[in-house]
Amino acid sequence: MNKIIIKLFLLILVTSNSLAENLKTTADDLFYIGQMNSHDKNFALYFKTRDKAVLAKGENFNYITDFPQDLYIYDYKSKTSSPLISYEWFPSKAKHLLNEYNFPVFPEDFAYYLLKDNNTLVMISAVKNIKKNFKFDIANKKLNKYPSNGKFDFIISSFAKNCSHSNLSENYKCNYYKPLISNNLIN
Question: Which pLDDT does position 73 carry in this prediction?
Fold first, then answer.
């Protein structure tokens, strides 16, 4: 049901944007689907499908996630790949941080915004009725709640905007981020 709503939302968004601006817009213009390069081009984040299905307790019914996906990081210098946010630890850690949500969450349930520091991922709940968002420190592999009074304005849940002075000698400017999402969110 949630996937259908997301597909309809994307269809309406893409259709309304193209009609309003007479531009061809695709989902790739709004999201990084499946893979995203870091701002400094040193690594890439990508989703990798797991080999086994997962039976999970849902909000309204139990369901099987046929091919859940984990978030991996690929280092261009060392040419190595490793799991960053995986089903092995993520559901239990997320459940600990989400006291009021009693159902499993998967890494692919979130939209990931990589900030300009190339180390911080802001994770926004994309499909489930989760009222909290997360912040993930890539270097230390630490997951925390994202403060609700953060400096980001989320626009139509696809772009994030962060406006500030990076130092005293710079002008006030805004950075726009588009999220990394799993193929499973739009299929």
Answer: 94
For 72-113, what is each residue's pLDDT tens digit? 999 999 999 999 999 889 988 988 888 777 777 888 888 888
Strand partners, 176: 161
- Long-range contacts formed by 141-148: CB under 8 A, 24+ apart: 141/84, 143/85, 143/90, 143/93, 143/94, 143/97, 144/97, 145/97, 146/122
Does residue 59 lie in a domain region?
no
Residue 45 pLDDT class (50, 70, 90 cuts): very high
The answer to whether the CB of 57 falls within 8 A of the CB of 104 is: yes
Full domain range(s) for residue 163: 2-34+86-186
Number of domains in the chain: 1
The C-alpha atoms of residue 173 and residue 163 are separated, in whole angstroms, by: 6
**Model pTM score:** 0.69
